[in-house]
Specification:
72% helix; Tetracycline Repressor, domain 2; mainly alpha
């Protein structure tokens, strides 16, 4: 993951950014497939041609929404965690901030999770972007886990790929319990699960 530098936006860019913000909200609630130029134009009080002028196609719009979501995810979860010391503190921060973001997305929806459901068996550019973004996040987690091993915070034989796999399992369980089952205390259970996972790999 690489840091993004922001420059002042021109009027056309500001309009495009506003459209993308609304599109991201719609996609979070209705899914990427529920995102159409017509619905977006109505929400923005613009003509379809006015919205379309900012994007080459509906698919381009969907991909730009994915990029915006990924950028926001990095700004809220990844970059703040880099301020923590290398090793376990950074890995713990990544997980805690990830959980916090997922908790806020319960009412709307997580693009990574909903997108995986929508495009798991549909090859094409949108699926490719989703896969790339998820893999980028997984690799960031694996790097942090490996740093925890290198700093002697975790056992030298720790399987970092397995560790990240189980972290993903906790987040998916949280999302499922909170969004569909509406089980109370699921956020706390996710944190407890992570603490147990780390305890099982700590250096004695």
């Amino acid at each position: 993951m690489t840091e993004v530098l922001h420059k002042p936006l021109r009027k056309g860019e500001q309009t495009r950014a506003s459209i993308l913000d609304v599109a991201l909200d719609l996609a979070s609630r209705e899914g990427l497939e529920g995102l159409t130029i017509g619905v977006l134009a109505e929400r923005m009080s613009m003509s379809k041609s006015g919205v379309f002028a900012h994007f080459g196609s509906r698919e381009d719009l969907q991909i730009d929404v994915l990029k915006l979501y990924h950028q926001q995810f990095e700004q809220e979860v990844f970059y703040p965690s880099l301020r923590e010391p290398r090793g376990l503190p950074r890995l713990q921060s990544l997980f805690s901030r990830w959980i916090a973001r997922v908790s806020l997305e319960i009412a709307s929806g997580c693009i990574y999770i909903s997108g995986a459901v929508e495009y798991d068996d549909r090859p094409g550019p949108i699926r490719e972007h989703l896969v790339t973004m998820v893999r980028t996040w997984q690799l960031a987690l694996q790097r942090a886990a490996q740093q925890a091993v290198d700093e002697h915070h975790l056992a030298p034989d720790t399987d970092t790929q397995q560790l990240v796999f189980e972290m993903y399992g906790l987040v998916l369980a949280l999302h499922h319990d909170a969004r569909f089952i509406r089980s109370p205390g699921c956020v706390d259970r996710a944190h407890v699960g992570f603490a147990r996972l780390i305890a099982s790999t700590r250096v004695p």
